[in-house]
Amino acid sequence: MRDGWQAKTVGDVCELVNGGTPKTDVAEFWGGEHFWITPAEMGKRQSPYAATTARMLSDLGMQNSSATPLPPMSVILSSRAPIGHLVINTEPMAFNQGCKGLIPGRSIDHKFLFYYLGSIVQLLNDLGTGTTFKELSGGKLKEVPIPVPPLPEQKRIVAILDEAFAGIAAATANAEKNLANARELFDGHLKALFDEEQATWERKTLRQAALDFGRGKSKHRPRNDPKLYGGKYPFIQTGDVRNCDHAILESTQTYNESGLAQSKLWPKGTVCITIAANIAETGILGFDACFPDSVIGMVVDPKQTTNDFVEYLLRSVQAQLKAAGKGSAQDNINLATFEDRPFPFPELEEQARIVETLNELSSCVRQLEDLYDRKSSVLAELRQAILQKAFSGELTGEKSRHCEAA
Q1: Which family does it belong to (predicted)?
Q2: CATH assignment of 202-345?
């Protein structure tokens, strides 16, 4: 620590305030004029600052709970589920019991405190206790050490961090925009290929182009009976289909012999279509697997089509299928959605050309996704390196010099 800096604790430089929640089933406690934030809402924010909240408390709500509004320019820290979300409130703001409020004293700048706490999220998590989920107590938080430079130096460090992180945010946004553009290009080209359907293309239902077409099986009740799981047979669920990229290469669960006996083992290459929960998502099995009746399986007739072509074809009309499944309760589609619906099937040679084009575009998108992931990791590491420099006393000179050094 640099000369002139003081070794303090969070409790030395801040007043800690606990949160609270009035009864959620009492309408009179809600919809008032008092801002009230939760860890879930904090986690969705891109800015360090919070001026409004999704839910508001009434005067009665404030009176009938332990929720306490913080003065503006305080720091709110989520202390459970998860530990480490941070915001600076620009208006008086209360929060639920999953947060701790920190009112900075005269010796600490609110933005300096915000950045410092963000630099030690791992330490805060390590201090959390609990079996169901970790929670950071107010007592532990008060004991957390914090280096405290003179106020002018704190403000200089904050200015350096603001400038550096603005550059990181711009680089991240640019990478995200490039990735979004690539995905839009692929989706547009995918739709265009099938919109340019030729008069010579034969139209037929999926069942007509299949050797096997039907819903998966999971007869046993309850479906989550532990005695069905833990064997060698992959069990694919709607989430596995949704999370795949054209091919389903992993499963989150497996069936044992008992599970297999009440299900059906579909062969590698089967096209999977989700019809409940995550509807109209598609993927191709990369291995033999079982799946429940919330997934349709199609084993293609190789004399008529290929699994790659069918998966791309279904992806091109995904929006239409989702629209067909809109319901008052849970969205869903079923076998009947496909029974009478004809799809275009060109000659196999034309199908192969379409698949080759889309595979090339998909490969380019995956390369951009890999690049984005690497860039995101590098930028996250850079951010942490800059924070480490800041709070070890290495960012106390001119902004431009230290930004270059970082």
Answers
A1: Belongs to the type-I restriction system S methylase family.
A2: 3.90.220.20
